[in-house]
Amino acid sequence: MLSQSDFWRNPEGAIKRAYKEMDDEILEDVAGSRGGSTAVTAILIDRKKLMVANVGDSRAILCGGDGVKQVTIDHEPNKEKQVIESRGGFVSKKPGNVPRVDGQLAMTRAFGDGKLKEHITSEPDVRIEIIEPNTVEFIILASDGLWKVMSNEEAFDEIREYDDAQEASQVLIKEALARGSRDDISCIVVAFGWS
């Protein structure tokens, strides 16, 4: 179990250990070998340093006066093909489908998925963004059920006029459903509220 002092000594290492511990917990459960999940997390330190971590295709975008900035990487098989192959796996693509690790998983990083764990990892990418007051209005953290049917810019456009973060996240979920999303949709909007 990580302590607060672990985090302050080495924030990036603490986040990576927390993701590893979560993966271990999921894998201990029987369901961990049959399925998996992606994740995105964000921590704002002293109202200026934003740490964002992700595994898989759950994504975070910063939105504000300067537009939209994606601060996570979608861990797609084509992007990390060499890493998968170096672990003894392969990336394949059937016509009309997306590339998949060992012909099964459309992600190279995920929690769970025990049957593929030799070839995939749960280690997150961790990014640090310095936030200037009043330049970033909010951050959207969402699963691929949103991003498969909406671009980063479209998501920002849908909610740029909303002041209430919870209402904004509900608007995005409803819009993803209206656009026919068939994947899981998890969405959190965090308003920075600088004033």
Automatic annotation (TrEMBL):
InterPro entries with a match to the protein in the record: PP2C, PPM-type-like_dom_sf, PPM-type_phosphatase-like_dom
Domain PPM-type phosphatase: from-to ranges: 1-192
UniProt cross-references to SUPFAM superfamilies, sorted A to Z: PP2C-like
Origin: domain of life: Eukaryota
GO molecular function: protein serine/threonine phosphatase activity
Protein's name according to its UniProt entry: PPM-type phosphatase domain-containing protein
